[in-house]
Design goal:
The complex is a heterodimer. Chain A is an alpha+beta fold. Chain A has 15 helices and ten strands. Chain A has a six-stranded mixed beta barrel with strand order 2-3-8-5-7-6, surrounded by four helices. The longest helix of chain A is centred in the N-terminal third of the chain and has 39 residues. Chain B is of the alpha/beta class. Chain B has a six-stranded mixed sheet with strand order 6-7-8-3-9-10. Chain B has a four-stranded antiparallel sheet with strand order 2-1-4-5, covered by helices on one side. In chain B, α6 links the parallel β7 and β8. The longest helix of chain B has 18 residues. Classes of the chains: A alpha+beta, B alpha/beta. At the A-B interface, α1, α12, α13 and α15 of A face α2 and α3 of B. Bound molecules: adenosine-5'-triphosphate (ATP) and magnesium ion (MG). Adenosine-5'-triphosphate (ATP) binds next to α1 of chain B.
Chain lengths: ~425, ~220
């Protein structure tokens, strides 16, 4: 087939109907650019939320939950079938949420392949006493160096120094919101009450902010030794192991392996811990795609319409081309090529404009206030999305252009030329 | 020697009115190099016959042979190729592609044929335009030409691939005496020098009288040949 000739005819058509061509092109441009902006922004938000949550979520959290023994001890005792045993408000035994040999288990897991590190910690609820007011919160005793290494806690410090936790005992860092509620500043001392009823005086050496009010309003950190002392336990007492993987997505599989090694420990991976967040994310993703596809389909209908009109206005031309010997596949090629040129130019421009709007959005200040640590709109710039945009645009125009082109090829030249 | 075109018992009716036959069994032969005129009253079926001869209309009864080939049952694409290579047309309503220049209009069927390089095609197209006295308008958009000028460009286009048969539906309908004579001379020369065959429908009695043979039609039948 004579490609050059077909291209020449198609280009001549496009150039003589400049206005129509540009309008059809802008339809595609609009669809693609909105697609890019939407998907960049939505995935940016998702990514931001995930990062924020993942900042502080261990990939696998190992702990010892308080469990009720499903059976009452009296049950097996009363073997007589006619007797019912009614047990109301069963209470747990006084078991400690301690992980047996916690430090050793932590070292063992840390040595396993795929594991980046393990932070052993002791977490307990405490009340921070602000005069007569008791503010509920938690305090986590952690391996200070490890915690920073794996979770970059020092980067979240608003005031003070994370490393100051290493200097002496009875020092803590607390969340921004918690510090406000307790009205303490760096350097102040505050009294706290443990669940066991003991009072302690600790010094605040730093204030952190994750940008998640749930954490910032209740959480505080100290060294392992400090918290072990608070709850009056020995240095082997560990309640939580926070495992961080090299690859986040391997967590669930690794958890299954770990279960076999430590059948008595309870484990939760980050997907379980963030199930509600992930559900929200998949809903947002679905919405993004539905809206984006709708935009592209609308653009496709635009092309379909314009190409249809184009072909109706060119009936005579098509008849002449056929009369002088052009075959159907060549007629299809001419009009399909016209659609494709419109589609490719429109999509290219759409990418540029989409990138431009996304960029502007990414430097637009985001008035998030205290709650979220963010300055501008979260926007992702992923090559993947741009490739998707172009291929969707390409396929849409191909389909939208093919049907009218087929119609053009079916035109009976005699009907037209007879006049 | 074999006839270049042979029509056998061509019957044509339109689907709107299948009982009304527009052509009621038309048979004739044309020899190579012949200059044939078809005449007859308006509405007698001349154009209808010409569309069938041109292979564009395939919805008829009867048999068509051209250049020794039986054309019944060929696919549209095969027929398009055949037209491109062997047939040239001038339609009753001179149809040019309005987006293209006069020269490009003449060149297109040759570019499609793809036998000569595009510079050769251009030269040949210029020569054909010169033949019909349109060389000065070569670069003008065809939609900006007058009716007679368009008709002459259409004639140049019909000649571009040196077709064996040239079919014209009132090629001189829009031309003054001078230009009509010029077209006649061109056709005459093509027949005698190149042994190309001309089949032309005409209302111009002078034009018809000077051709080799006249077929007269009336009401879907040939009444004199
Ligand atoms: N598409 C059509 N459907 C039905 N009837 C048609 C159609 N085209 C032409 N006819 C009829 O066929 C007959 C022959 O028409 P045709 O165009 O062949 O006439 P003609 O001899 O070329 O006339 P003229 O000299 O005016 O061009 C006319 O009666 C016309 O009404
Ligand atoms: Mg006619």
């Amino acid at each position: 087939m004579n490609t050059k000739l077909i291209a020449e005819i198609a280009l001549t058509h496009l150039f003589t109907k400049k206005k129509q061509t540009i309008i059809a092109m802008l339809g595609v441009t609009f669809g693609i650019s909105m697609f890019i902006v939407m998907i960049s922004f939505m995935t940016g938000v998702n990514q931001f939320m995930e990062d924020m949550a993942m900042d502080n979520t261990p990939h696998i959290h190992i702990y010892n939950p308080i469990q009720l023994n499903g059976h009452a001890i009296v049950e097996p005792a009363s073997t007589e079938t006619k007797n019912w045993v009614v047990l109301q408000h069963q209470r747990p035994k006084n078991v400690l949420p301690k992980i047996k040999n916690g430090m050793q288990v932590a070292a063992e897991i840390a040595a396993m392949p795929g594991v980046k590190g393990v932070v052993p910690s002791v977490t307990t609820q405490v009340f921070f006493n602000n005069g007569p007011v008791q503010i509920p919160g938690t305090i986590s005793g952690v391996d200070v160096r490890k915690q920073d290494e794996l979770y970059l806690t020092s980067g979240k410090m608003e005031e003070g120094n994370w490393d100051d936790l290493l200097k002496g005992t009875d020092v803590i860092v607390m969340g921004h919101g918690l510090a406000v509620k307790a009205s303490v500043k760096v350097g102040d001392r505050i009294s706290l009450t443990t669940p066991q009823g003991a009072n302690h005086l600790v010094k605040v050496v730093g204030i952190f902010s994750y940008g998640i009010s749930m954490l910032d309003d209740s959480k505080s950190y100290a060294s392992l030794a400090t918290v072990q002392k608070l709850v009056a336990r020995d240095p082997s007492y560990v309640t939580d192991l926070n495992v961080k993987m090299n690859v986040m997505d391997e967590a669930a599989a690794f958890k299954t392996t770990l279960r076999k090694v430590y059948p008595n420990l309870y484990m939760e991976d980050w997907q379980e811990a963030n199930a509600s967040l992930l559900a929200g994310e998949s809903i947002r993703n679905i919405m993004t795609f539905v809206i984006s596809f709708t935009l592209l389909i609308v653009a496709g209908f635009g092309i379909y319409n314009i190409m249809n009109m184009n072909i109706i206005s060119k009936m005579k031309d098509i008849a002449i081309l056929k009369a002088t010997g052009f075959e159907s596949p060549q007629i299809v090629s001419v009009f399909l090529l016209e659609s494709l040129i419109i589609g490719i130019l429109g999509a290219g421009l759409g990418l540029l404009i989409g990138f431009g709007i996304s960029y502007l959005l990414s430097i637009t200040p985001f008035p998030a206030g205290q709650f979220v640590r963010i300055n501008t709109f979260p926007v992702n710039f992923l090559v993947k999305h741009y490739l998707m945009g172009v291929s969707f645009g390409f396929v849409t125009t191909l389909i939208a252009g093919y049907m009218p082109a087929l119609k053009a090829a079916k035109i009976d030249p005699v009907k037209i030329i007879r006049g | 020697m074999e006839s270049i075109l042979q029509a056998k018992a061509i019957v044509k009716s339109f689907p709107e009115n299948p009982d009304l036959q527009i052509l009621k069994g038309v048979s004739f032969t044309v020899e190579q190099g012949e200059f044939l005129s078809i005449v007859g009253k308006s509405g007698c079926g001349k154009s209808t016959l010409l569309y069938i001869l041109s292979t564009m209309d395939t919805d008829y009864k009867g048999d068509m042979y051209m250049m020794g080939q039986h054309l019944n049952g060929w696919s549209q694409n095969q027929l398009a190729k055949f037209r491109n290579e062997h047939l040239g047309f001038v339609f009753q309503f001179h149809y040019l592609l309005p987006e293209f220049s006069a020269l490009k209009n003449v060149m297109l069927p040759a570019l499609k044929l793809n036998k000569y390089s595009s510079s050769e095609v251009k030269e040949r197209a210029m020569a054909k335009l010169e033949l019909v006295g349109m060389q000065d308008y070569a670069d003008k958009l065809s939609s900006k030409l007058s009716g007679g000028q368009q008709q002459r460009v259409a004639i140049a286009r019909a000649l571009i691939n040196d077709p064996a048969i040239i079919m014209c539906d009132e090629p001189t309908g829009n031309l003054d005496k001078n230009n009509s004579m010029n077209v006649f001379e061109i056709f005459k020369k093509l027949c005698s020098d190149n042994r190309q065959t001309i089949i032309t429908v005409t209302h111009d009695p002078d034009f018809a009288a000077k051709s080799d043979r006249i077929i007269e039609m009336s009401d879907g039948l040939i009444i004199k040949q």
